[in-house]
Amino acid sequence: MRVYISADIEGIGCVVRSEHSSPGGREYERARRFMTAEVNAAALGAFAAGAVDVVVADSHNVGLNLIPEELDERIRLIMGSPRPLAMMDGIDLGFDAALFIGYHGRAGTADAVIAHTFTGRIAEVRMNDLVIGEIGLSALLAGHYNIPVVFMAGDDAGCREAEALLPGLATVSVKQGIGAYAAICPHPTVCREKIRTAAEQTLLRCRREGFPQPLTMAGPVTLQMRFTTASSVDRVLRMPRVQRVSGTIIQYQAADLPEAFAAFNTMADLIELTPFI
After folding, report:
1. Is 124 a known ligand-binding residue?
2. Which residues bind Zn(2+) 2 (predicted)?
3. Does 19 belong to an annotated binding site?
4. CATH architecture of the domain formed by 2-117+134-209
């Protein structure tokens, strides 16, 4: 059994503010250790369930967050950026299952901790009228390569979002949001043990009863993005085939999911060059 883990930081236990998630923030080094420990917990669960290969994608910011020397020696780590499949790079190498660690609610979600979708400049993303955030985008990319997402650990709101999108998904909530930048957080050791146990039990069940069907989306795919400012639309209109729907909304018609994601990923990068107004 080969297992893929995509790891973000905003949904890690005891991470609640940008001081945790931003490199250079006064709590960032602590958050890196928390993130590394939760990834280790998931990987240990996977190995205990019989995994012979665990690949982890460091999927926050520029992909330099996990502390390599503190990871289990059996893990292979994808790090750095830019990457064609962003948070899910390497998923096309072929795996039996994917796990999400440190994932969070999409932009605009109530009681989600540090809720966003790739960047604070994106207010909403739709693909064929399905409203999705990073959880949905990553699950669809996995599904395109016929790989099911079977487990996720993150904040309570993120877990609810994932469960609604992926019925039957096993989740572990590592914090309960009480505001955009505040949460009730169990002790980190408690969260890690829950993650390790749940990852192992979930993968054992999948091996015994069969893996679930992955989330897929057949082409063509209509991508619609709503930005927080009109100036972001001004910038992405430089891309071919991007159409302005309103002051802050664009639409892009793609032949299939990979093209839609490539367009999304490119626009997400482009708008980072746009000043906040």
Report:
1. no
2. 8, 60, 104, 134
3. no
4. 3-Layer(aba) Sandwich (3.40)
